[in-house]
Queue: 3 jobs
Job 1
Amino acid sequence: MGDSHNHGFFGPNTGLLINSPSKYNFFTYIRCIKKKPDGQWEKPSLGAGTVIKFSLEELISLLDVLNKNKHKWTTFHTYKNTKTMISISWEDEKSTNLWLTIGTYSKMLTCEQSVVFKLLLNHILKEKIKYATSSDSEKVSEIYENAPSKSSEKYLADSMNSGDNHEQPLNSGANIEKNLIKTALIKTKKMKKKEMTYINGSIKGETQKALLINFNSNGRDVWIPKSTIHNDFSQNTESNQQFLIDDWVLKRNEIIS
């Protein structure tokens, strides 16, 4: 049985990458990336996207929602005075669609994807409780935290051929780690300059490059370019959902002031 686990979930606009570098390592990394306007995916190897380091307790909180013991779980991670919101919730009480939000990234998992996600997290949690909490776990975990991991690096490269780091990069070695953090901080500063807003609405129509959205705030139907929507969305036209949209297009259409 393998010592590490890597898996990716991809939608039309957003990808979710799961990485457990070792069963002896206490942490599991979940990274969100998105597709750029030119159709190319953001590259984690360049520090793109957002990655969060989840503890054993936080894995249990994720599984609590996946097992439908509760509808939603929300928390925050703080790194260098920057807060990143993490949220997992079902679309509604009867829905089989699951939403995972990390910072400005929001990924919808279908019924099938959420089942695989739950099974994977269950397996990782059981493995880590057995091995990472053993008497030599702290020493072994420290080695895995700081040593380069060829399998992890290869996985990230392969994911881009198929799909910011507020905390710390996946096992990539000391020098690569510094470069990734530096790149991520630059990208984070650039992202802050680009203002976006979560806003509720429902899809009334769709073309290849735009959505016709009925906004709850004013009841208007407005065509919004897909390139300005930065989260995954359900194709269900009856579903009321959140859209993360560039402020400039919302202001131009007088959706926000």
Job 2
Amino acid sequence: MTGRGRVIAALNFQESDKIPLDINAHPSSGIDAVAYMGLREYLELPRSALYIYDFDQRLALVEKDILDFFDADTFQLGLDFAKNHGRWQDFRLEDGTPCKIPVKKDARFPMSANFKRELRETAAASRDGTDRAIYGVFGGSLAETGCKKFGMENFLRGLLIEPGKTQRFLDAVTEKHMENLKTYLDAAGKYIDIIGFNDDMCAQNGPLFSPDIYNDFFFQRQKRMWTYIHDRFPSLKICLHCCGGTRLLMPLFIDAGLDALNPVQRSCKDMALNDLKMELHGKLALWGGGCDTHFMLPGIAPREIRAYVNESVKTMYKGGGFVFQPVHNILKSMPAANIVEMYKTVREFNSGAEGEKNENDSSCKR
């Protein structure tokens, strides 16, 4: 199977030849620039120009040789063309490492006619240039937008003491998202496989507000956006990035039309991977949770990483519904040996899974 076919099969709860692997398909499955350079050195890959495409999170533009080395199945829309634009300036990291960073933050919203044309051309060329699943990052946040606009404390207070004002604000935000969503889909909808939303609504102990509050303020607005996507492009999958303990909101996300949830922060309350697999299989795919990046990846030996990741993939392989990525981005503090062991374990499991599947198919034919 191609990477594209493998990811789509997983999101349709079909067991494929391998567990699909995501490396840097979106800005929550990426690699810190320092960790990335250390990874390349550890793998003895040629030293290359360092591009930091997300300056706030210091995420490196992951190059094709890394994706090929670990057999990645995903690709972030636009990254293959990022170097071709005159939008970079020279910069140095704190250790003196030279790199390129964006001249200014890419202001995608509101979407101009030039952006729409460029997006269409980029998406079409990406579709022709890779058989990996193409992930288009849209955004579309509601709670996050409110928190950024008013401050988290003020926005959350407004949900309770100024509901009318908050509803009007969220109506205006949703209308702008719908306008931009139409533009985005007009340009890229037929070329991408997954469209990514983000809206962090949870802390480590659970949601920032009750399911009733979610129903009153967010459910219908997310459902409106996600229904619009499914109506226009029925095969296009929707993935929401929402950190924290999301379990109480998962049934509501499903009812609103969500296909997959990221990053599956398994160290949080009620987020055990095997429990989620049993509860959600056939309803909501899990995009992430393959290796905890808070407690495990930075602090244990490679052999322990191997055992830990093996347990994850064995739990999640059967019946699809899972795309492997670590819980959120790989940070500077994570040893290259552990990063390599994590991805190599997935690759080796996949080699065994593919052989086992081929053997079973042969037995059936015999």
Job 3
Amino acid sequence: MSDLKSILSNFNSIALNEMDNVKLMSRVDTKFAFKFENIFHLLKKMEPFYKVLDINGNNIQDYRSLYFDTEDRKFYVDHHNRRVNRNKVRFREYVSSNLTFLEIKLKNNKKKTIKKRIKVKSINLKLTKKQIEFIQKITGKAITLNAKQWINFSRITFVHKKLKERLTMDINLSYNDSKNKGDLKHIVIAEIKQERMSRSSDFMRIAKQMHLLPFRISKYCITTLMLDPSVKRNRFKEKELFINKLKVA
């Protein structure tokens, strides 16, 4: 981790209150997953083009998330079955910022990700009446949700110096439910967030040079696979094999 912090210290920094222009609550996402050891060379190539988010002197922020789903895993199954207009519901604590939100993500039929959220005091295993009403208003459905699993990770956030583009890299990912636990600390999950798809991204160019290709991955879905062997998984087998291959390669 000290090597990582040393490389990040070479980046120009950006403060949280300067991020308003790249909130991108409605956006197009492009994800990558690659071996952790690749991050060092990648960052050195990125340094001329990106600023790194700095919060109270820290470039690496911790996130804690608790995901909710129906008893029959509707949100997971919708993603597995490639349904459009699908949702995910979670509490997320932004530890460094001392902020916690109830967040709802919608992936619509135009491949846009739209995020709605309300601020809450803390993460709770049970949803309050107000929170249930918020979820129903956004999703348009009366659904009963239960806490399913925790997903915790550390995130490095970058902002392009010229383009309206935000880039996140998630590391040290761990997950657990009431019975099982595991981690994906051998990989980095990177995500480019743009208003609309643009191949002019310097990250995309650098990743292509390093033979790192876009890879659709949902932290909620992949950890559900790891925690619950009984869930439907045929369309995710290729992703599971890819993640496992990164571990042994």
